[in-house]
Every structure is written in C-alpha cells, then in structure tokens.
Amino acid sequence: MCAHIVLAEDDAKQAELVRRYLERERHTVVVVGDGAVALDLVRRHPPDLLVLDVMLPGVDGLEICRTLRAESDLPVLMLTARSTEDDLLAGLDLGADDYVTKPFSPRELMARIRTLLRRAAPARPGSGAARVGSLTVDPVRHEVTVDGRAIDCTPGEFRLLELMAAQPDRVFTRGQLLEHLHGFDRFITQRAIDVHVMNLRKKIEARPRHPARLLTVYGVGYKLTAGADAP
C-alpha cells in the first residue's frame, strides 16, 4: 500500500531516518519541522497518515492532535520521548490512533504504520453494516449513527465499535480489545481501553455516566448491547 504521509518532526536526523524508511516502502513523504506549519499543511492537503512528534516548536503535537480530531478522522501516529503511562494516555485521549516512544526501532515503526494504513483503508465491497438496537456501524462508509444521528469517531473508536457491534452482548476483555487495536505493546496498558470507552460513551450514550449501550462487566471487560432499545 503506497500512501501520502506527513512527518511532523523537528529533529533533522530522526526525520531523515524515518523518511528513508518510509520511502523504501514506496510512500510519498512530506517532512515538516514546525507544528503550526504541519497543522496548516494537513488541513489544506489531508494525507493518508500523520506521523506526529509531540515536542514540536510553534504548536505542540498534543494541541495539533486535539485540533485535528475536532475536524476529521485523519489517522495519527504520535512519536514522543515521554514514556510514562499518563503521557501515553493523554495522547490516546486526544484521539491518537497509536503511540511510539523514542528511541524506537524503525522496523517496528514501519509495522505500526502498515497496520494503521490497513485499518484506514476502505472496507471491501459487501461488508455489511452492523446494527445493535438504534446504533449502526457501517464499515463501507466508515460511519456510526445512533438514532439516525451521525457520530464522529476516531479510527480507534470506530475499530472498537466495529468489533463489538459484530458480536453484540459478547463480553470482551480489556486485553482482547487492546490486542485488536494495538497488538502487543509493552508501553500501552489496558487503561488505554478505558479511555476509549469513556470517550465513546460521551458520543453514543444519552447519559454517559449511566451507560445503557456500552456496558462494563466488572472484573472482566466491556460489552455492547441494544441498551434502551432492547425489548
């Protein structure tokens, strides 16, 4: 899969290394070293993927992610030298689809990028929409609706809903959901799933603090039900 990728990274040596690996995989790459310039660029010419360093001059990566998530579902992979769990969760909470900490293996980074690009690719024709009560997840159109109202989801949130809507009432452990989103990653913990669930509830539940659709099964994980639509 050849993609157009914007790499927002102000460390020239790091940017050159990543650019070479990306071009080896036949992607087209635009490197930007300033946060404000990067934000303007991806707004005017949306790429297939944004690889975004957190510590950028002008506008930092977290602010860029926050701004873009209010406007689009552009896939975002964040790079950072920060490695604490709170830093990782902050990025995911803002809607980043994946998070890689420095120093990283370029081969691992390329694998993460391939995974994100596959997930963002249009679904195959014939993939039907899944309905759970009045909630619909349509992988062909990449749309989520509740009571006919369109819901804006990040790619990660969409992936979770798509998985759970395909098997309503099945209880998924946090580990299973994390594996579905990120594969094995020692830096991303199961708390990341709780962040996604909290954000989804704000979007699909009438009363997020008292959910009726996306339910917690204490000691196990989460399940998606018809909720208030159930007979």
UniProtKB/TrEMBL annotation:
DNA-binding feature ranges: 127-226
User: What GO MF annotations does this protein's record show?
Assistant: phosphorelay response regulator activity; transcription cis-regulatory region binding
Q: Which lineage do the record's taxonomy fields give for this organism? A: Bacteria, Bacillati, Actinomycetota, Actinomycetes, Pseudonocardiales
> How is this protein annotated for GO cellular component?
cytosol; protein-DNA complex
Could you list the residue ranges that cross the membrane?
none
Record keywords: DNA-binding, Phosphoprotein, Transcription, Transcription regulation, Two-component regulatory system
Modified residues annotated as 4-aspartylphosphate in this record: 53
Q: Which Gene3D superfamilies match?
A: 3.40.50.2300, 6.10.250.690, Winged helix-like DNA-binding domain superfamily/Winged helix DNA-binding domain (1.10.10.10)
Residue span(s) of domain OmpR/PhoB-type: 127-226
User: Is DNA-binding one of the keywords?
Assistant: yes
Can you give the residue ranges of the Response regulatory domain? 4-117
Question: Could you identify this protein by its name?
Answer: Response regulator transcription factor
Instruction: Please name the GO terms of the biological process aspect recorded for this protein, alphabetically.
Output: regulation of DNA-templated transcription
Q: Name the domain of life this protein comes from.
A: Bacteria
Q: Does the keyword Transmembrane apply?
A: no
